[in-house]
Amino acid sequence: MSAAKAPALAEKELHVWRASLDAPPLVLRRLTNTLNTNEKERAERFLVPQAREHFVASRGILRGLLATYLEIDPVSVELQYGPEGKPSLSSLHNSQIRFSVSHSQGMGLFAFAKGHEVGVDIEWIKANFKGMEIASHFFSSDEVRELAKLTPELADEAFFGCWTRKEAYVKARGQGLSVPLRSFTVNFTSSEQRLLDEAGEPWSCYALEPTPGFAGAVVAAGENWSLKCWEWSAGIESLARFNASSV
Amino acid sequence: MPITCRHEECANSRILGGGKNEASEGGRRVRVKVRSGVFADPGTEQVFEKVTGGEEQQNAASGVLRPVQLRFVVEGKIDAAQLQSAWQKTAERLSVVTARSHPANGNGNGKGSRRAPWQEHDLRGLPRDEAHKWIRLFLETDDQQGISAERFPMRCALLLTKERECELVWSLHPAVNERVDVQQAMREILAACHSEVRLTELRPQRVEEMVQQAEIKPPVEASQYAAYPEGSAEQELIKIWETVLNTRPVRINDDFFDLGGHSLLAARLLARIEDSLGVELPLASLLEAPTVRGQAQLVREYKGRTNPGDRGRNEQPVARQLPFFFLGGDPTFRPLSQRLNELREFHSLGLQMSVIAKLRDPGSLECIAEKFVQSIRERRPDGPYMLGGWCAHGLLAFEVARQLEAQGQEVAQVLLLETVNPVRMKQYSGWKRSIARMQLKFHLLKFEYAYVRQLNSTQTRNYIAGRTMQKLARIKQSLRRVLKGTNSHPELDDLGEGNPLDVLYAAAAKYYPKAFQGHIVLIRSTQRTFGFGHVLDLGWSELLGNSLEICETPGNHYTIYMQPNVDALAHKMNICLRKAEERTVRASGKISR
Questions:
Q1: Contact A51/B266, CB-based, under 8 Å?
Q2: String of b and e for B212-226 (b: at least 16 CB within 10 Å)?
């Protein structure tokens, strides 16, 4: 991996990295070499070549980014998995860094925070996706009603805004698909909002606009985060920022 | 086979009953008959019908589209240059993505030259097996080189193998929602190749077979769905998985997430499963059972739980079955009535001219509704009530529900099927409404055509006679209106001959819906008309606020009542009604505690 310096992850800083996962073969090979045996086996299980490549790229980039934060070699990064399959840094590292990864259509987002759980989600805004089919099955009635107020074109896009916010929250909670999406409501028009969990604890949700045609959101436990977004490109972690939100 | 061609001209010509399309292809006129085949050789036509027809039926029966790959070895006089232009034109017109290769044309495009929708790839110089491998990729992979299943659901590859022989391989992508008239498209493509093609060898063949024949190890196994009995959960699930994941084949032990599945696809998968199999699995179930095998087991367990015979074993409070009153007694609703009848107690109430004649003010929906309230309470003196109706009948159901509530009765559920809030619709401009009306007429025509086709000859005669009488009555009335001058209730001039629907629609147009607190589900068709018809909530959100839920069902304003859409509709209605029943149980439970 390149030895480019990652910006230090200060307290109350929420870092989101954007990366294209359609890496050239050379980069892909380099990334593959950073994976451990389990991950390589998992990559082999993917039956769709593109899905395999995206998995390899996202896992390789994650290892690279974690390695730079931890200032170690990507190969030495040890991960462990929660009950719902959420990966986290192994306790061996004795680090407070929490992270979350999401990718869609070859675009990946990687979120990092110190000491607080994070969740990130990105979705490619697919035209004519008919999100209402999913919304009416899985969203809360308030959300469905809000979506229904929009014209079909706007509703399509708003669906993805809504979905990524919900997904990011569920991922931050670490419960994956087991949290009924219907059980909470997000406001999909505001770019920043506070969500309260069952215990009344606040979670911050930020809408992201990773790149045109994609919707994204990041959620972190607690409040008053300073959100910073970076671009990862082919091994050189350039510090070019991308817009967190169009607002 | 009901009409399914996406091209309006085709649809029209078929409605009119087997017209002819004449397409000018490369300066040569190619005659494409619409109803009968294009093949000069009747034997070829017969085999073609048999093979493609069989596949079509299989698709229609399952309701899920599968890639259909057929191999044709075509023999005939083939002029490469002519073929090229004819092939391209037809392909463009039909939105078919094509690939081809032929040894005759020396001036080919370079490898990888990309142009959509016409994709050219020079396969010359490639060994036959390599070319087949390439074609397989082309036919089966989505989102490659700008080809998406949504834009180009049909793909076709043509290989000129010898001077007079070519192979045509095609696939209909599984991600296609609407059905494409593949037979028709194939005919046109073959006709474009040459007007006198004779199919010397014709058999359905999976591309896997081709690859195997070329002695290449296939990269993946063939779909396994055929290994399970027709209608089994495994078979249905494999089909749904392949559609949602857009990958093929899916094997029974493949992990959803290994196939590239993610949460959004999981949501879509479970929504589809609910629609096709009637089982509502939670999202998390996919973590416990990420394979078709595990999921089929879950589906059987859930089905057992909701099976009325097994209800006793379920520890959850058992909801009382409430009857459902469906307003609208038209015979076109019969498929829906039959299905709902299988699922629950069901009454269908229609409006008759003899009833209208006795009404105080037939021009007011409130007044018509009073009559319905009366006959509903005759059948069921006390609530909770569940009722619904389609289009203007939905408004009637809404008003009936209001009146029932005003009489102190509980209304558990109102289902509005494609019902417009008339007040909000009037705010739309006249021209938008006219366009929508024209679209509706077209939808209606398609529906009637499909409807009449499935009737027997006596029923067809009766139907056509009935429709003619209706039209005549309408013409007579309008003539009378012209002669007499304006009249506030023209449709009531001659109640003996009038159509009760006209009375209802006239009353509905003047109806002003008032606030209502009960639960309302608006059921929308997925194929909507322009203008107000395109607005998802049809203008109800503002008035109904929290009590409104919206759900979508496949088809247009009319075809939601036709096979195969009607299954989904009946199923969705039943789910809404079941939820309402559970709500009433919970509510009464709270009161008693």
A1: no
A2: eeeeeebeeebbbbe
Q: Tokens 């669906």: give the residue.
A: A159
**Which residues on chain A are in Cβ contact (under 8 Å) with B274?**
137
Interface test with B, best of A39, A41, A48, A162 (most B CBs within 10 A): A48
- As averages over each run of 10 residues, the pLDDT of chain B (593 residues) reads 29 23 28 35 56 43 39 52 59 52 33 33 54 59 48 58 56 47 60 52 43 37 57 84 80 82 84 83 81 87 61 41 79 74 76 75 85 84 86 88 88 88 75 76 78 73 76 76 58 54 81 84 80 75 78 80 78 82 68 38
- B-chain CB neighbours of A149 within 8 Å are 537, 541
Judge: A133–B541 Cβ closer than 8 Å, yes or no. Answer: no
Contact B548 A148 (CB under 8 A): yes
Determine which of A53, A144, A177, A184 to mutate to test the interface with B (most B C-beta atoms within 10 Å).
A177
- The neighbour count for residue A50, using CB atoms within 10 Å, is 17
State the burial class of residue B385 (Cβ atoms within 10 Å of its Cβ: 0-12, 13-18, 19+). buried
- Using a CB-CB distance cutoff of 8 angstroms, which residues of chain B are in contact with residue A133? 268, 271, 552
- List of residues 6+ apart from B429 with CB closer than 8 A: none
Alpha carbon distances (Å) from B34 to B13, B19, B31, B91, B456: 8, 6, 9, 17, 23
Query: What is the interface pTM, i.e. ipTM, of the complex?
Result: 0.75
CB contact under 8 A, B258 and A47: yes
